[in-house]
Design a protein that fits this description.
Elements: H1 10-20, H2 24-31, H3 35-47, E1 54-58, H4 64-70, E2 75-80, H5 83-88, E3 96-98, E4 111-117, H6 126-135, E5 137-148, H7 154-175, H8 181-191, H9 195-204, E6 207-215, E7 220-227
Parallel strand pairs: 1-2, 1-4, 2-3, 4-5
Antiparallel strand pairs: 5-7, 6-7
Helix pairs in contact: 2-7, 7-8
Catalytic activity: a 2-demethylmenaquinol + S-adenosyl-L-methionine = a menaquinol + S-adenosyl-L-homocysteine + H(+)
Binding site for S-adenosyl-L-methionine: 62, 80, 100-101, 117
GO molecular function: methyltransferase activity
């Protein structure tokens, strides 16, 4: 896979994540200089979870994000289409479900809140996935999308994209169990729409009150919305 096209083949992407699963959490921590932990905490806080609420963590990978969400006292389930990722997180004490983001195995309005972190850009149909998340969320329920964004400061943006092309693969070769996958991941970040465009797509999928908070000078953004 040489280009991160929007019509990504789901089987190829799942296989890629199976290949990086063994050292995925370590690689993320190294690549983000430990900021991944902060982003997980901010995602939990942005959801405003309350004890007893039901929460879907989609594209949860090894469920490290789900464990963070559970700190709120909410009931949280991790869902991912990579069996390798779910197996790598088997030791984490949260429920896990193998699931296709475009055909979630949950009833309408099943959750009080839903979230997806660094996974939306890897789904073959972004708009359908956002609509499917809306389907399984009750009216008035909340969505938070934590995803890479378009850096807002031009000099930093140039350095950042150069780093995606050169630095990210070099680090991945040292720490990842599948370094080639990070070439794809870097391309998927560069190809991803800027924050205003993603906000418009979230609104078009049935969500209201869409807004976002930039992190890391816009290299990451938290998009928040409410189910209409």
């Amino acid at each position: 896979m040489s280009r991160a096209e929007l019509d990504k083949d789901p089987h190829a992407v799942a296989t890629m994540f199976d290949g990086v699963a063994r050292r995925y959490d370590l690689t993320n921590t190294v690549l983000t200089a430990g900021q991944d932990r902060r982003w997980r905490r901010l995602t939990r806080e942005a959801l405003g979870l309350r004890p007893g609420e039901r929460v879907l963590d989609l594209a949860a990978g090894t469920a490290v994000s789900t464990v963070e969400l559970r700190r709120s006292g909410a009931w949280c389930v991790a869902a991912d289409f990579s069996l390798g990722m779910l197996r790598a997180g088997a030791h984490r004490p949260v429920p896990k479900v193998a699931a296709d983001a475009l055909h979630l195995p949950f009833r309408d309005g099943a959750f009080d809140a839903v979230t997806i972190s660094f996974g939306l850009r890897n789904i073959a149909d972004t708009d359908a996935a956002l609509a499917e998340l809306a389907r399984v969320t009750r009216p008035g329920g909340r969505l938070v999308v934590c995803e890479f964004g378009r850096p807002t400061v031009a000099p930093f943006r140039a350095v950042y994209y150069a780093g995606l092309e050169h630095v990210l693969p070099a680090i991945a070769r040292r720490v990842s169990s599948n370094p080639e996958a990070y070439v794809y991941l870097g391309e998927s970040i560069r190809d991803w729409p800027a924050q205003p465009e993603l906000a418009a797509r979230i609104a078009a999928a049935g969500w209201t009150g869409v807004g976002w908070r930039n992190l890391a000078l816009g290299a990451v953004a938290l998009h928040r919305a409410v189910r209409g």
